[in-house]
Amino acid sequence: MFTEIEYAAACAFILRETGIVLDSSKGYFIEGRLKPIETDAGVNSLGDLIRKAETDRVLKQKVIDAVSTNETYFFRDSKPFDLLRNFLVPQIMEKGNSLSIWSAASSTGQEAYSIAMSLKEILFDLSKFKIKITGSDISAEAVQRANHGVYSRFELTRGLTPLQISRYFTPCGSHGEYKVSDELRYVVQFGQANLLTSPIFNGIYDIVFCRNVAIYFKKEDKRLLFERMSRSLKPGGSLIIGSTESLIDFPDLFSREQFHGIVYYVKK
Ligand SMILES: C[S@@+](CC[C@H](N)C(=O)[O-])C[C@H]1O[C@@H](n2cnc3c(N)ncnc32)[C@H](O)[C@@H]1O
After folding, report:
1. Homologous superfamily of the 79-267 domain (CATH)
2. 108 within ligand 1 shell (Cβ under 6 A)
3. For a substitution probing ligand 1, which of 20, 106, 138 has the most ligand atoms within 8 Å of its CB?
4. Domain 4-67 fold
5. Of 71, 88, 140, 191, which sees the most CB atoms within 10 A?
6. Which residues of the chain have pLDDT under 50?
7. Pair type for strands 150-152 and 177-180
């Protein structure tokens, strides 16, 4: 069992490195996630693990990977993808043939590939357009999985219909897994980035999905996050947040809009 001082040091480290706030009720979570790393690293306590992780880049990334919650699934909350297909993309494509979308905090890639599938459903031949979908996440492990584009049958059935599975995935390997089609893979790229500190490209995205990550941040970091999301968008670009999230505290950054009851935010 960790001591209170060790636990506080671990929480401070995680907050500093990721922005993720862990309160006193998360002791079991930290213990479950970090104990195996402590054993592997050959240190005797959580305090020693955190001290070592401060200067050991590989160990630091292992701790970050372990404490990030990567829960996601294809077409999560479905409505943002209806908004994309029925309103946002047709509106952008009226003006040209290029489109750039950022899945910020893309976890293991399901959100970015769901965006690609949505585009395929309305644009048909993606190679005829200049499409760039970028996924990024702080977890190196999650980014590696997203890049690989290989999912278990269980992961596919969380959100995809049998038709979508047969259309966009092919069986691979000997463990009953499926690989995303080349056509979707070619329009999506993934990279590792911390949304609060990594350099961002200003004004390049038409649409940003930033869902189910701000919930882990304190108020000041939420502001920093949404300022950065705003800067990354083109003038008039759209931001889509999670179904339980709100931008009520940041009326200076975005205006709240609706399409058939689906809420999204436009850069001011
Ligand atoms: C719950 S998942 C959400 C995934 C996806 N956006 C969705 O809604 O299904 C949250 C993701 O945020 C990532 N994350 C947490 N803090 C981050 C940070 N500071 N920078 C980038 N990603 C972060 C985690 O690694 C995790 O993959």
Report:
1. Vaccinia Virus protein VP39 (3.40.50.150)
2. no
3. 138
4. Chemotaxis Receptor Methyltransferase Cher; domain 1 (1.10.155)
5. 88
6. none
7. antiparallel
